[in-house]
UniProtKB/TrEMBL annotation:
EC top class, as a word: transferase
Anthranilate synthase component I N-terminal domain span: 3-129
Domain spans labelled Chorismate-utilising enzyme C-terminal: 180-433
SUPFAM superfamilies the record matches: ADC synthase (SSF56322)
Keyword Hydrolase listed: no
Protein name: aminodeoxychorismate synthase
Underlying gene: pabB
Keywords: Aminotransferase, Transferase
């Protein structure tokens, strides 16, 4: 269905994995491209929005609606905005001040998309229930379509995948960054670090392969292999689908209470429990990885302070080791309270892109990324979010995220480079992050990754 979205929780902890959210058919949607900001309704009528500030106000207007039903009031989503922001939105946001050149729009995705959804299916894994929630003034044609589909689902067995829908890679994944280029760019970043331009630069590589079939089948394989807390599948239109298996929260808000949980610092998982425990212990006690994490914590404390009440920004967890399906990570938690004069959209746009995937200081790191990386990141290192009318907001950092477009599937992996980084370790970290994902959708007769210098 048009703009179908699934915000999916594979990591069943109480904080991140209780609910799934499914919806489609937004009543209207807003888009930012490199040349315009528009709002479009279901009939195709389009209205120009004059500025980012005007867009923030437009997005915030719906958050005053509180559901009358007491059960709905406690849900993460009742009705509201769901969408995504690509990494390149950051260049558009900064271009107004002359800090960064405006990025070229990629044809696959707009820089920002948010649909206003009047209904959702909410899966509660704690209570083991499924709820259909919708606004009282939901469009009648939308209500009738969903009612009809749900009736069929309840009385029909799920169809088995056919040869026409089975997802199949038709080429090996190939990186556009050779080993030689990675070494050259690593040395260039080191020269910037020595010169004092920045403290850390997050450098990423892109991998691509061709495919046939339905992207939803690839998503099912990924969620089975690498379950995470912030998984999502989006039909983005224009023959584009977003498959995200992200473990990282960007910004969460409940009313005025604000939380961000940056990830920085990685070590590999091992099948042998003893080796796995050693890897986790070494990460937790790594001075380099802790320094990287603390740099980003300071950056995000600064980002949050612009819109939080004085003295409310606190670091409640610093450099805690968390274990995921494919890697161990260092995770920190920062909280705050949004000041009365600001909205969650002020926080989101002004903190975007997340500092954990840029480096620090952010603007100079982004300039270096744009100089060296031979590709656009698109949805990778952007964000996927929802903003419910009942005051709930949550968003991910779109790492471990793939994009299917026009028969090509793209995946990215990156890591933060600092002065005492070793090039072999950084290159291996990228392989640790991406390898499990690519293996999950790669047939046995194809290699997962191919580079020119391997």
């Amino acid at each position: 269905m048009p703009h179908a979205v699934l915000l999916d929780s594979g990591d069943r902890d109480a904080n991140k994995g209780r609910y799934d959210i499914l919806s489609a058919l937004p009543e209207r949607y807003v888009e930012i491209t490199s040349i315009h900001i528009n709002e479009t309704d279901k009939s195709g009528q389009s209205l120009n929005i004059e500025s980012i500030e005007a867009l923030k106000k437009r997005l915030a207007e719906t958050a005053i609606c509180q559901p009358a039903d007491a059960t709905a009031a406690t849900l993460p989503f009742t009705a509201g905005w769901i969408g995504y922001a690509t990494y390149e939105l950051g260049y558009r946001l900064e271009a107004k001040s002359g800090s960064l050149p405006s990025a070229q729009q990629d044809e696959a995705l707009p820089l920002f998309f948010a649909g206003y959804y009047q209904w959702a299916i909410i899966i509660d894994h704690l209570k083991r229930t499924a709820l259909w929630v919708y606004k009282n003034d939901i469009a009648q044609d939308t209500f009738d379509q969903i009612d009809n589909i749900l009736g069929k689902i309840l009385n029909t067995a799920a169809p088995a995948p056919t040869s026409a829908t089975t997802f199949t890679l038709t080429s090996e994944f190939a990186s556009n960054t050779t080993a030689d280029k990675y070494l050259e760019d690593f040395d260039r970043i080191q020269s910037y670090l020595v010169a004092g331009d920045c403290y850390q630069v997050n450098y990423a590589m892109r991998y691509q392969a061709s495919f046939t079939g339905e992207p939803i089948q690839a998503y099912r394989q990924l969620r089975e292999s690498v379950p995470s807390g912030f998984m999502s599948f989006l039909n983005a239109g224009n023959d584009s689908h977003i498959l995200s298996i992200s473990p990282e929260r960007f910004i969460q808000a409940s009313g005025k209470r604000l939380v961000t949980e940056p990830i920085k610092g990685t070590s590999a998982r091992h099948k042998d429990p003893e080796a796995d425990a050693v890897s986790r212990h070494n990460l937790l006690n790594s001075a380099k990885n802790r320094a990287e994490n603390i740099m980003i914590v300071d950056l995000l404390r600064n980002d949050m302070s612009h819109h939080c009440t004085p003295n409310s920004v606190k670091v409640t967890r610093l450099c805690d080791a968390e274990s995921f399906a494919n890697v161990h990570h260092l995770v920190s938690t920062i909280t705050g309270e949004i000041q009365t004069s600001s909205t969650i959209w002020d926080v989101f746009f002004d903190a975007f892109p997340g500092g954990s995937i840029t480096g620090a200081p952010k603007i100079r790191a982004c300039q270096i990324i744009q100089e060296l990386e031979p590709h656009q990141r698109e949805i990778y290192c952007g964000s996927i979010f929802y903003a419910s009318d009942n005051g709930e907001f949550d968003s991910s950092i779109a790492i471990r995220t793939l994009l299917c477009h026009d028969g090509t599937i793209s995946a990215w992996a990156g890591g933060g480079i600092v002065k005492d980084s070793e090039v072999e370790d950084e290159y291996q970290e990228c392989s640790n992050k991406i390898g499990r994902l690519l293996d999950a959708i790669t047939p046995d007769n194809l290699g997962a990754i191919q580079t020119e210098n391997d």
